[in-house]
Structures
1.
Amino acid sequence: MKRIKKFKNVEELKKAIEQQEAARQQEKKKRVIVVSSGTCGQARGSLKVIEALKKALREEGLKDQVAIRITGCHGFCEAEPNLIIYPDRIFYQKLTPPDVRTIVKETLVEGRVVEKFLHRDPLTKERAWYENEIPFYQKQKRIVLGDNVFVDPTSLLEYLAIGGFRPFIKVLTRMKPEEIIQTVKQSGLRGRGGAGFPTGLKWEATRRAPGDIKYIICNGDEGDPGAYMDRSVLEGNPYRVLEGMMIGALAIGAREGYLYVRDEYPLAVRHVTLALEQLYKAGLLGEKILGTDFSLDLHLAKGAGAFVCGEETALIASIEGRVGEPRQRPPFPAQKGLWRKPTCINNVETWANIPLIMLNGADWFSSIGTSGSKGTKIFSLVGKINNTGLVEVPMGITLREIIYDIGGGIPEGKAFKAVQTGGPSGGCLPASMLDQIIDYESLTAAGSIMGSGGMIVMDEKTCMVDVAKYFLNFLRDESCGKCISCREGTQRMWEIVRDITEGLGQPGDLELLEELALATKEASMCGLGQTAANPVLSTLRYFRDEYEAHIYEKRCPAGVCKNLIRYAVIPEKCTGCEACKRACPTGAIQGTRKDVHLILYDKCIKCGACLEACRFEAIEAQREEAITIVREVKP
Amino acid sequence: MSVHQTINLDSLQEIVERHGYNKNKLIAILQDIQAVYHYLPAEALKTLSKLLKIPLIDIISVATFYRAFSLTPKGRHVATVCMGTACHVRGAPKILEEFERQLNIRRGETTEDGEWSLETVACLGCCAIGPVVVVDGDYHAHTSIRKVPTILGRYRK
């Protein structure tokens, strides 16, 4: 890594940016191979791919002609590990170390594209040669995530090469704090962490709050299961978030700030730590930044695994070293936050938008999106979907466009059932809502929320009662216990839904659930409790028939709830291949080769291993006929 | 658990010093202690209470509130099954059950020989490659019930 020297003034920083930009122009003349290596990429073997790539380039004598750039995640997680060869932008995916050797020989030496490593569209089956031809990327508008491809997140100089810190220089030398805040207000940027509060108003309130000492915080406690865009931004472009915070500190008048990052994100923690070190070395953090009167200290605080700490007052308590329990608002953090001083707390994605708005102007930003929701939003498109990954789309796009055009539809030709948005505070939207446009207001009206941007797709094999049970279990576990309505409400709702999935549901349960949901919502203090009922209410609203099938017919239509199903072999489809027999951990499957197999119900523990092993769809979850469930008294 | 680690008071002192004896850094201090011992030994917490001059009960309250902390020793290997929504709809509960069956312990427990601890996590944020299981820091993507014995085998001697 190149040594970083301290920039004494704005001119020196400007010069360094120009130098790096020029070097980047030079680099464009040669081939650059960009390897995606975020957490997902590394989990799929990107580090071995990089090693193999370096070795192959050495062996072919291409070491000096071809540059490698190791970057964070490009968003297309399904295709990991992948690489892009610039300048052509040839996109190769799902690579192993031997594949890389082939690519170096074929593409770099011989100049041929290796078809089998190209992306193949799950719907049209067509192969895309270039990154920009891949349908997954075509409908996206990647203003925040797009630069992940161009920067090595461990290097400040790489960030300068894409014009990094030009926005900071602009606000430092040419804008008054009020002007910065005015620009943020005009842009229409709203908080990307969930509630969607206008960012500019928050900044203004913190600036106007009396007192000399003020703090800024970056909320990177991305706790919603199924959402990971903040991880990707922190891992792949940490400097952009930090630059956003520096601009925020200038505008608000803060001299100190914290980045609160989940402990479950080791790579993000590492990259942020490195970035902070380099910024201090470069004189972009600390006392008298670039020789001006502006000083700023930023620290990293690691979370310790508590979902409720995503709530701003709980997060502040956690930074102060206390138990992460939320407190009553007002006073809002903008009035009394960290150490009881005015504090501005924004989400990772929100901070990452700031440099872009400062550089391109409020009008540019507000030209994207709908009347009430401006800019883009990153969603994590996961679950039962072909193209899983992070998608950044303009506000106002429809669910259908995201799920079918970008996501490539549902795997194995199954039918779409629902999409869950907004994490445990959100809800499940059915197929009839597919043409719903996405912005803060319309999602709320539909009974869900924007939330941090998780988008979990569910197909016909997903049981909606089970999904509600899952979220309630999560929430009763994560409820801090301060408000009785939330602590007991989530617990009781979970017990009722659990009983329903176990075949113990009774007439009147659904009405009781609705009553409890309302009480939990009305009487809880923080966002966790106030929204805890959403997963239940939204599934009840759109999938009441599934609840009723569980209660009145003791039947799980999706074939998920263990007590209500049993696995059986479909004789017409069974080829007698013995795959299920080998997979069964309890020896519950009988049958000889080429004969139809049989499942012994007294031995079967319903683990589903046979279903997973069968390649002929010859095993199905049938309705458990002999249900003799007696409602037991549970402790 | 058969292994009893003795608490090295010097290293504890060093951790507290690094954080400037700052009570507000309690969570970070506990994280550093756990990084050394893989759990929070009672003896270390008692000493910490004296060093930081805060009541032991306040330390315990923080240590038990946050999921990342453990007051009991962990096994030599730790398998963590991700229970995030995306992993859930792709079968994470069944994978957890298979781990429980193979290791003969429930989630949150450690095997008697001290070899394995089985943990769950709310979400690891690599939802695209779910169901995900992390063993000793290695991520295993797209796991299935049938892959569980293979994954365990890789860490068994």
2.
Amino acid sequence: MHELSICEGILQVIEDQAAEQKFTSVEKVRLEIGALAGVELEALKFGFDVVTKNSLAENAVLEIITVDGTAWCMPCQKPVPISQRYDACPECGGFQLQVTSGDELRIKDLEVN
Amino acid sequence: MVQIEQDILSKNDAYAAENRGYLKALGILALNFVSSPGSGKTTLLARTITDLKGDVPITVIEGDQQTANDAERIRATGAKAVQVNTGKGCHLDGHMVGRALESLAPEKNSLLFIENVGNLVCPAGFDLGEKLKVVILSVTEGEDKPLKYPDMFHAAGLMLLNKIDLLPYLNFDVDLCIENARRVNPDIRVLQVSATSGEGLDDWYAWIKSEATQTQSKEA
């Protein structure tokens, strides 16, 4: 449900950048979204179209780069892949994990005119 | 091509950082209370305020989609409270809290309780400038809530397991619940309380006082 506010956040960043870097329309927006960021990608795409209506990013293509979840396992002393926050370490089965990537929620770059 | 490399919620984070700076300068301990609807958040806060208000001034920001009912319940305890209605929104954000702080004008070395919208999903991602999130889970909910809503339990520093006076009537496995919470957040602290019977509240108050002492401004 908060995908809509995330889209509003995206548009705010774009509008601030447009004022700063003097562009007037956006062709493409590339996002980096982590697997653990708690974002439903379909809802995000839908929200993006709604929020960008009548804005400088109307009709912009939304490209999403997903980032896999990785955690540092304390007992194993190494990084391990995880797909959910409650996953156990795939090597030792323990839960002493510190998420190191996969919670990204970033705008990477824009193609603009 | 314009390189942005900026967090999508950077605007919110900037408001939150502003709030945090303001609160820190005044030595105010701010706690962001999150839970599902009906966990007993408002009852627990009202009881906490009633029991602590003689020791320390407390102000409250109440977030709900609609109605001012909760702010009225809090004001009945004598604490200053503002209600923020998020309308269609599912969470409070840094900007809303900043505006609420302006009208509340909390005093130096006081406590600020922010009661977020009852929702175990969205408030996890929105920093408000608090020192930490306190997640309230009642024993009438399932012990697997931390696994169903991992982001929230991951984001919280303390879990209050509420309504423990009802445990004799329920099939709720406290140890399993705590184990589940530690699976998503190995560092989470857990306190078992009942806002109705008062069980465990002394530990909760001791925790608040210790956090508040660490937060207080040293300047006279």
